[in-house]
Prior knowledge:
The complex is a heterodimer of chains A (501) and B (153).
Chain A: H1 2-14, H2 17-35, H3 41-48, H4 57-82, H5 91-102, H6 106-139, H7 144-161, H8 166-179, E1 183-184, E2 191-192, H9 206-224, H10 243-263, H11 270-285, H12 298-313, H13 315-321, H14 327-338, H15 347-350, H16 352-373, H17 377-383, H18 388-407, H19 410-428, H20 434-456, H21 463-466, H22 468-485, H23 487-498
Helix pairs in contact in A: 1-16, 2-4, 2-16, 3-4, 3-9, 3-14, 3-18, 4-5, 4-6, 4-12, 4-14, 4-16, 5-6, 5-12, 6-10, 6-12, 6-13, 6-16, 7-8, 7-20, 7-22, 8-20, 9-18, 9-19, 9-20, 10-11, 10-12, 11-12, 14-20, 18-19
Chain B: H1 7-28, H2 42-65, H3 76-96, H4 98-110, H5 118-139
Helix pairs in contact in B: 1-2, 3-4, 4-5
Amino acid sequence: MELLDNLALGFSTALLVQNVLYCFVGVLLGTAVGVLPGIGPTATVAMLLPITFSFEPVTALIMLAGIYYGAQYGGSTTAILINLPGESSAAVTALDGHEMARQGRAGPALAAAAIGSFVAGTVATVVLAAAAPPLASVALKFGPADYFSLVLFGLIVSIALARGTALKALAMIALGVLLGTVGQDIYTGTPRFVFEQRELYGGIDFVSVAVGLFGVAEILRNLENEQTRTAIVSRVTNLWPTREDRRRIVAPILRGTGLGAALGVLPGGGHVLASFTSYAVEKRISKRPQEFGRGAIEGVAGPESANNAAAQTSFIPLLTLGLPAHPVMALMIGAFIVHGITPGPNVINDEPALFWGLIASMWIGNVLLLLLNLPLIGLWVRMLRIPYQVLFPMIILFAAIGTYSLNSNAYDVYAIVFFGILGYVLIKCGCEPAPLLLGFVLGPLLEENLRRALIISRGDPSVFVTRPISAALLALAVAALVVAVLPTIRQRRAAVFTEEE
Amino acid sequence: MERRRSFPDVLAGGVFVLIGGAFVVGALGYELGTPTRMGPGAFPLLVGASVVALGLAIVGKGLVAGEVISFGPVPWRAVAAIVVAVLFFGFTIRRLGFVPTTAVTALLTTLASARVRLLTALAVAAGLTVASTLIFVVGLQLRIPLWGPWLGF
Lengths: 501, 153
């Protein structure tokens, strides 16, 4: 029962007082930013990353992870109460959740979301604990050529899942990879694209990129149409679902959990896809499909479970392969590196307490979230009344301070402006920001492994297709690209995304 | 879906071509090396060329069969206020110190909203300065001097 031993190690780490405390801080902050529209987990993690540098590595990662899955939780509250999804994956929850709230059934909707998320989080944590070790041992056999193909595969799958056109997503990835080349070359030490500025030798900090793309650009979007937020928040009464409700949510929660756990592993917004898919499945197999969109509790329970399960299992590629499935995961790679740990298959053997502690903390975090959300719902409702005029200066200021404190480098702060404006323009043109960040973080990995593989093969590029793992991954990458570009499949994919939107 | 000439597509493609092109030009200035030992310029050249190609494809598609997206208004005031505020922060944090820099940055940022009133702005700026000094300098012990050399400290 190796799994039990490992989990015991994990819980003994995660239950240390400071770890429970920061897990609590993480899920609390996560819920808060999930509830508040206009600031998401990516910007929050980016801003708080510098603060965690003084922590123990495991404590830092527990808190950052808490922000991520806490935000998935909090997003549903806003979606149900004011029909404004705080997080993109909560957009589906708003369909039936808000309808239920308008019928005076906000309580059961919130309860269904919270219970579903808790069940899903628990199951997905077990999936993560069981699936990660075998995957990591496979990944240990990877050579540079295989890693190159894996990273390429990850990047391409992330466009197949992103919204918007595949061409633009591809261009965003390439642009991210390109911007990742700024700074000293790893093999020769030649400074590249630094304009003779010593401050740029270390490259552009990914925190600046994340804060610019997800913080500043988002604020500019929100300031386009200023309007006082409709603060008509329905009163939440009668939280506990009726017996009929309880009977109706069991199956959707279980199906949502399964779907979410499977889809969460995919790079690039697997949790958004999971919640949309779960909604479509529930609607199709329901005996009362006409109720969907008019306050069907299944339409809340299923997608919420799916998105929370996916949030947990999206840690699988990060912890086993060092591949981020979500922009927040990309930032967590940075957190690993700052603490001197290279994320990837070695983490599980080299840092078992950290690995299992992080996994165990997710279950603890889910318990904390359940306690935080149901009894304290009134507090979160009140938070929705914070005016945006107070909120956005706070975000900008904290972003600037946090980024500066990374290396005391003013160029990191200037980079926020650059990426904020670049991101704003490109988002307005229909480009998604997430692929750029993923490309930026993975770009150096791509270059390093490409060059290393070619050095080993003495310049023979056929190494990428003669090694079986590499060849299989490249074939999958090509398949994913074809799926993303082919018009017929694209239309069907668009249909999944736009259904009932 | 309706397909027609799309300004956002052309603009986005243009941005890609511009940035990709700049990197290509820059990369040509570095050693390219051989396939066995790739020089520092090879990878950026390869990726930069792909960005340019993808950008051109987006422009081309935008001219004949673009995505129909409405570009919407640009909040020039907000763009200006936030850009100035953040640049000010980066430039003066070392020179003026934490407290004055934070206060001015916060005040500049509040001006981004078109509905701001002076009193609200001052209150928000004061509150944020106190809060961030407590959080970052007192609480998290960031090593940033509270008052900088420009103020004679």
